[in-house]
Structure formats: structure tokens, C-alpha cells
Amino acid sequence: MITEKELLTLCGQVGRVLLTSGAETSRVETTVEYIGKAAGFTVTCHATMTAILISEDLNNRVHIVKIRGNQFNLQKLDEINHLSRQFTEGRLSFAELQGEVNRIDQKVIDFKWPEKILSAGLVSVAPMMLFKASWSDLAWAFLVGICGYLIAQWAFYKVQGAYAAPALGGLTVGFLAGLLFALHLGQNADHIAVSALMPLVPGVAMTNSFREIIGRDTISGLVRAVDAVVTAGAIGGGVIIGHFLAQLLTL
């Protein structure tokens, strides 16, 4: 027998995992309401970027989940979606759903550092193809992109402030690109910097903001868009400061 408390607690956990993993608010609301319907309850869900409100309509019970932090993890999102579909189709019991959601929530899903470093370098190289850059600039973009990514990752865990990590990553990229050009090791500092910034660009946040606005979730879409714009501004500001520092050191 599924109790209201168990259902609301599980729905809140599912919504939190989805939202913090990069899901748009409409997906969170739909998934939670489908789970409630499959469990035999009429559930209403309203999700924002900072909180999820879930109510059971029969007895007017409300469950509120505060959202803190936001680390995109599309693998968790995919696994939760798969579980919800299995449950709504009757291929998974409520107890099994609870166990699997707890496992996903507690599981640290991440790539190994060598894989992340190599991926950052390859992402940094791709735009250089559009610029028809020289082989030397392409190699420098690969290395500078890795350096910027590593600094941003270090700052994410060590430096307080929501936008310190992208700002420091951008500063590293701008400084190294300007230094390479000043030392006549790189041919075009702008191309190197623009390419090396690719691992730092908030692409998922920007995509989700457009999807939410198109889906008429205007408030959440605008919040995501503002966050993405501020992040991009922090990266750009870091690049400018880094480039200026490189010029000062090489006068």
C-alpha cells in the first residue's frame, strides 16, 4: 500500500534530481505528475529554479523541496526518465522505483579526469577548423583550452562565488592566448582565445532557457537565460583582464 507521504517524498526526490541534473521545469512537472497518476493519486506539481511544490489533491497535502546547487548531469536525467516510464507502464513496482531513485540520487556519475581533459582539448580545437587556423594555433588552442578548463574546475570546488569559476577560467584563457601571441608563439590570439573558451560556455543552460521560453515557462526560462548571460559575461570579463595582464607582462 502506497501512502501519501511516501509518494510525495519520492516525487520530490525525483523532481530535485531532474532539476539539478539539467531538466527543464516542464519535464520535471510532467514526470512527477505521471508518477503520481501511475501510483493511483492525483498529483499536481509546480517547479521553479529554486523550489518544487507538489500537492496531493484529494487531501490537500503539499510537499515543498528547496533546490540548492545545479550540476548538469544528463546521464542521471536519462536514468530517471527511463525509470519513470517503466513505472508508468507497470514494469516496475513502487518499492523498486524508490530503491532505484535513491541509488541514482546517491551515485556519483562522472567521467575520469583523463577523459575530461582530452574532451576539453578536443572541444577547444573544433572552432579552429572554422577559422582555418595554422597547425601551431590549433595545438595551442588544444593546450590553452585544457588549462582554462582545469582552472575553472579547481575554482568551482575551491573558490566561493557562483561565477568565480568561469571568470577564472576565462582569465586563464585570455592570459595564455595573449602571452603566446606576445611571445610570437601563436599567430592569432583572438582565434586561440575564442576556441579555448568552448569548454566553459554554458551551452546546456542557454538551450534549456530557449526551450522553456518556447514552452511558455517564461519565468524559469528567463532565470536560466539571465544565469547563462551572467556566466558568459564573467567569462568575457576574465578574458579581457587576462589579456590585459599578458600585455603588461610583455611590454
Automatic annotation (TrEMBL):
<dbReference type="GO" id="GO:0005886">
    <property type="term" value="C:plasma membrane"/>
</dbReference>
<dbReference type="GO" id="GO:0015744">
    <property type="term" value="P:succinate transport"/>
</dbReference>
<feature type="transmembrane region" description="Helical">
    <location>
        <begin position="139"/>
        <end position="157"/>
    </location>
</feature>
<keyword id="KW-1133">Transmembrane helix</keyword>
<feature type="domain" description="Threonine/serine exporter-like N-terminal">
    <location>
        <begin position="10"/>
        <end position="243"/>
    </location>
</feature>
<dbReference type="Pfam" id="PF06738">
    <property type="entry name" value="ThrE"/>
</dbReference>
<feature type="transmembrane region" description="Helical">
    <location>
        <begin position="222"/>
        <end position="246"/>
    </location>
</feature>
<comment type="similarity">
    <text>Belongs to the ThrE exporter (TC 2.A.79) family.</text>
</comment>
<dbReference type="InterPro" id="IPR010619">
    <property type="entry name" value="ThrE-like_N"/>
</dbReference>
<dbReference type="InterPro" id="IPR050539">
    <property type="entry name" value="ThrE_Dicarb/AminoAcid_Exp"/>
</dbReference>
<keyword id="KW-0472">Membrane</keyword>
<dbReference type="GO" id="GO:0022857">
    <property type="term" value="F:transmembrane transporter activity"/>
</dbReference>
<feature type="transmembrane region" description="Helical">
    <location>
        <begin position="164"/>
        <end position="185"/>
    </location>
</feature>
<keyword id="KW-0812">Transmembrane</keyword>
<protein>
    <submittedName>
        <fullName>Membrane spanning protein</fullName>
    </submittedName>
</protein>
<keyword id="KW-1003">Cell membrane</keyword>
